[in-house]
């Protein structure tokens, strides 16, 4: 079947099998390997992308279901001004070790800060509850997201 | 790599269109909404539909509102919408208690209320909650619309009264003043399926003491309770004072009437213990909420 999916602002038309999963469309058909394919059971959250502005686990969404919708992946975080603040804060606070969970963490973190610019540590931990860091580096992930919140607050305050 | 077997895919443009597709393709067709139960089952070949009918565009099945003295929850409402619904939380805080412990926020963005209820997993949280609340399921089919009480909705594990060419459209819960409700769950880790859980909705006649229970609904999850509830415990509670002694006896009755099965989540004795203890805790919390609302009024 033919699908039309807009990914990071670019429209893609592809002929796919209905059983193709969104994560494999992104990685194998579109070459966007930033989105990671982890547990395949919607538990680990490595595959989180946004669909129509909402984080979803792309291993449990069919590519066909994304047709006509807007998808944002980790490749779409970077803007004209360079890396997104959450990316900069993950670098600054060592929010990753092996990096496998990072794309999903970044997408959820960006969504959280867009909806709650000053989240508490508890709110951050709840937001990433569906995402597994196999290095168990949660302390630094939470710290990174707090850092991004503070950095955006002081920048907005200065503007 | 887990990939479903081959199937055909169509996107429904209206509920009538979806029903027409279901009628045409019969037992080989399945409806997909959030897909967070069905797609994993398809990957494991536990489900192998030949035609998948995507109902994500059917906004007529969405929304959460109070209308006609009822809280109406569209079948396509996502878990995150129910958790975020102020009107649902105001009338039935039990629904927010339950939603907070269903899976995780990203899964809740996608999974739907109707999908969860129709999956009818014995460990699913909302089945017990809606049973306690005596919700009504509104089901649409080619013949028209029918309403089925939640207590007649489930016909067995993973089975409901929704026919092969029907769609669950909405859940309706009567809005009644003077009540409190709660849901309490024990799970092995955050977001997991329940080892056991209990729901209670309770209405109090205020008195000088703890108040008298005028009506009550109980729900029990994952403990083999007939119809996700404990009718004998409900009958015991009605008309009695809302005291710790009353709740303890109700818990004992609920535990006695459930039939838990030992599995990787725990042995049967432990689950039976939880059924009793969680019934007590959820009644206690529901009564406290009912009293707090009585004082506000």
From TrEMBL, chain A:
Pfam families cross-referenced by the UniProt entry: Fer2, Fer2_2
InterPro entries in the cross-refs: 2Fe-2S-bd (IPR002888), 2Fe-2S-bd_dom_sf (IPR036884), 2Fe-2S_ferredoxin-like_sf (IPR036010), 2Fe-2S_ferredoxin-type (IPR001041), Beta-grasp_dom_sf (IPR012675), Diverse_Oxidoreductases (IPR051452)
Chain ranges of the 2Fe-2S ferredoxin-type domain: 1-77
Gene3D superfamilies, per database record: 3.10.20.30, [2Fe-2S]-binding domain
Superkingdom field: Bacteria
GO molecular function: 2 iron, 2 sulfur cluster binding; metal ion binding; oxidoreductase activity
Keywords, ordered alphabetically: 2Fe-2S, Iron, Iron-sulfur, Metal-binding, Oxidoreductase
Pathway(s): Alkaloid degradation; nicotine degradation
Protein name, per record: (2Fe-2S)-binding protein
Organism of derivation: Pseudonocardia bannensis
Phylogenetic placement of the source organism: Bacteria, Bacillati, Actinomycetota, Actinomycetes, Pseudonocardiales
From TrEMBL, chain B:
GO molecular function: FAD binding; oxidoreductase activity
Name of the protein: Xanthine dehydrogenase family protein subunit M
Record-annotated FAD-binding PCMH-type domain positions: 2-178
PROSITE patterns attached to this UniProt entry: FAD_PCMH (PS51387)
UniProt keywords, alphabetically: FAD, Flavoprotein, Oxidoreductase
Pfam family membership, one: CO_deh_flav_C
Keyword Flavoprotein in record: yes
Keyword Cell division found: no
Organism, as annotated: Pseudonocardia bannensis
